[in-house]
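Hi all, long-time lurker, first post. I run a small reading group and we've been trying to get comfortable going from sequence to structure in the token notation. Rather than ask abstract questions, I figured I'd post a concrete chain and ask someone more experienced to write out its structure so we can walk through it together at our next meeting. Sequence below, copied exactly:
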Amino acid sequence: MNKNESHITRRNLLRNSALAGLGGALMPLTGMAVPDQKKKKTLNLIEAENSKPGTVEWQLQFTGFDTPVTMASYPMVRYLRSLSIEGFVSKTSVLPGESIEFKVSMDPPGNFFIDIYRMGYYAGTGGRHMVRLGSFPGSPQSLPMMTIERLRECNWETATTFTIPNDWLSGVYLGKLSRDEPFGKQSYVIFVVKEHRKSDVLCQVSDLTWQAYNKWPGRDSLYDDGSTSVWYTGPNVRVSFDRPYAKYGQLFEATLSAGSGEYLLWEHPMTYWLEQQGYDVAYCSNLDLHFDPDILNLSKVFLSVGHDEYWTRKMYEEATRARDNGLSLAFFSGNTLYLELSLFDSFNGTPGRVFSRVKIFEDEEKLMGLTSSPGAGVGYGDWVVKNSAHWVYKGTGMKNGDKIPGIIGWEFNGPPTPDIANIEIVAENALSQATEPHAASIYRCPKGNWVFNAGTIWWPEGLSDPPGHIPAGDAGMEEPPYLYATDPYGRSAAAGHNPGGRTLGVNSYVQKITSNILDRMIKDSPR
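-- Answer (accepted) --
Happy to help. Here is the structure in token form:
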């Protein structure tokens, strides 16, 4: 290499990462998609995809929330819906070559564009612009009547139908809806492009949970029964995917997430990190485990990420069957598999567009190793190392009792089940605002595959801090501590559902533990 050629050093990589918006956070170099000029390395599909130009313009720039929502138990007015422009898509996931419909409402009428972005690393920008659609005319669409079970299904006009190009790689895709006017208001739609190809890792988005908590148009989540109760958890309530996602407002007011469910809050840091590291990853919707379970046979490792509370019984059975057939599972999530739901057809006969709560899962720990119960629900605290000699801590230098601060919250899993004889506990600690301790576990299956459970929604917060990410915690809170009369578990506001803790940013221990787990699962895969 002569002096005029680019010289790749660790210092240059860190400097470039900082310039790309990573804030200088130390990222492990193992698995990074860095071209090897001497060996002429063949990039995998994810590495090749992320070598393409990215942009930070996937983020919303101009937002507006126009419909005030008040409740007897709310001490403040909340603005959750963007009448200026809002929409949804006809499918939660789609294969290349299949079509997806965009349903959009605008008040006042006007024209709008749809810019579609694939989310990933892309040299630190977090997304790549794929296509601009439009402009299209838009007008106000009707607010659907509510059924006896509080179900609202939007039978809106189709603004456009788009066929996914055959060369689009599996990923999480955001459609940014923008009014075609100066300073035009914006919001998102979100969907997954899946693929029926072999991959090392299959990353599932938690969209059933996003929809369960979606209050659009104001008081219509699975936790609203029409009374003054804010956290209703009984029967006879249904929700639909045929409606926009309101602004997220469960833990804090996430204005710039409008229309994207909970993805940008808890899951984008995982996507960003996985693709930065160059893992061969594909993506799927929660619903794919129910309607397209063969997708589990194509990967070595399955990831549950973020807030993954709602599963159907069939999803559970398919994941269990896949585990027994050699699939490793990594639950980088919390409050996971807490509630079982039933799926129903939509008003036009589309399967799985409507669902309702059935009951609390009674055997979730037999799959994921940890319990998910009301006592192990909301809590905040540190990851405290136990069994530091375990291979999950290889290369970290951590010792028993060492801490990763602030990574447990806001909902978590624990304690472990006694039903799995060889289960090992690798972290355990008491938490603020919780009656049971947090735990993290791992066990090996008869075919040599593994099941790991980090037991916290906030685990991805330690992996990366992409552009547009809203770190969890007290920063940016718009809700006072007395907002809720009770939390989802029936406890008083004194116990508090609002943050009593916060995350503390990217952590090299979290990164190393995660890479240890994924690399070992891939290496030991019997597939």
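A couple of things your group might point at:
The helical segments are 10-22, 45-50, 207-212, 263-277, 286-291, 313-324, 365-368, 508-523.
The chain has eight helices and 23 strands.
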